[in-house]
Design brief:
- Helix content is 54%, strand content 8%.
- It has 144 residues and is mainly alpha-helical.
Length: 144
């Protein structure tokens, strides 16, 4: 649940089974699960200790993708390559906008986003990305 993106194999089982031991999840389990799947679904999984299969985890937003086990690493690497082909500064700033925005009101989140958008527009990568788009070629981002 701490990962930015989560890919599960079709064979995966996910949940918070600590209740079966008479304890609650630690290390952010209650907080991260509720932010990923919503209060109602999180409460059900947390207080019942029920495990879910990968398709249900996908349906509730616990994982981003479900992939056959044999293709899991291939798909994870493909996703990583896609992200790595984007402007590193923009990726970092987008992730920061989401992470910081989730901790505050929508109004404050929009302010954070606007500030980070302005910062992203001041990068060399923005100039390269725009130029590459106009020249119909792949950009060569430098992370600056």
């Amino acid at each position: 649940m701490s990962c930015t993106l989560r890919i599960a194999s079709t064979r995966a089982k996910l949940g918070q089974p600590e209740m079966n031991l008479g304890i609650i999840p630690g290390y952010g389990g209650t907080q991260k699960l509720s932010r990923l799947v919503g209060k109602g679904r999180a409460m059900e999984l947390l207080i019942t200790g029920r495990m879910v299969d990968a398709p249900e985890a996908y349906q509730m937003g616990l994982v981003n993708r479900v992939i056959e086990l044999e293709k899991l690493m291939e798909e994870a690497e493909k996703l990583a390559r896609t992200i790595m082909s984007k402007g590193p500064a923009a990726v970092k700033l987008a992730m920061e906008a989401v992470n910081r925005g989730l901790e505050v009101s929508l109004e404050e989140g929009l302010r954070i986003e606007a500030d980070l958008f302005g910062l992203s527009c001041s990068t060399e990568d923005k100039i390269e990305g725009t130029k590459a788009f106009l020249e119909k070629r792949k950009p060569s981002f430098q992370g600056r």
